[in-house]
Design brief:
Helix content is 35%, strand content 10%. It has 139 residues and is of the alpha+beta class. Strand 4 and strand 5 form a beta hairpin.
Length: 139
């Protein structure tokens, strides 16, 4: 069985709740190889959905880079970011979100749920199958 918990919970709390569990941190703050399972991890060469021949550094970079706002459109710099920092694009800075562009040069904007299904999940699946298969098989 796999249980997903909030990354802000203390390890002590998790150990009490799940005394016999193997607890794995797969966030960007993790140490060791499992950090590569974080959507923020810069694997490089990740295909950008609906944008033939364009790649990005991380899943989160693609997700944030294709997000559009009142005052900002697609951000290629976020897609190239390899630091695992400064990837988030916020309402405070760019205004209300309009949706996720279906491809870097696309004209269609996807709503949040459609974008999760058509952009985020296929991109993360690609990373698991093409960049992290050894870790997936280990788990």
């Amino acid at each position: 069985m796999i249980i997903v918990e909030n990354h802000r919970k203390k390890m002590e709390t998790l150990r009490k709740a799940y005394p016999d569990a193997l607890i794995l941190d797969v966030t960007s703050h993790a140490t060791g190889a499992l950090r590569k399972l974080s959507p923020f991890y810069p694997h490089m060469g990740i295909p950008v959905p609906f944008t033939p021949s364009m790649t990005a550094a991380s899943v989160e970079g693609i997700w944030q880079g294709l997000k559009t706002f009142e005052k900002a459109d697609v951000d290629l710099d976020v897609m190239r970011n390899t630091t695992m920092k400064d990837l988030k694009r916020t309402v405070r800075r760019f205004g209300a979100p309009k949706g996720h562009r279906k491809g870097v040069h696309g004209t269609e904007l996807l709503g949040y749920l459609a974008a999760r299904w058509e952009i985020y999940l296929p991109t993360y699946k690609w990373v698991l199958e093409n960049k992290c298969l050894d870790l997936v098989e280990l788990l």
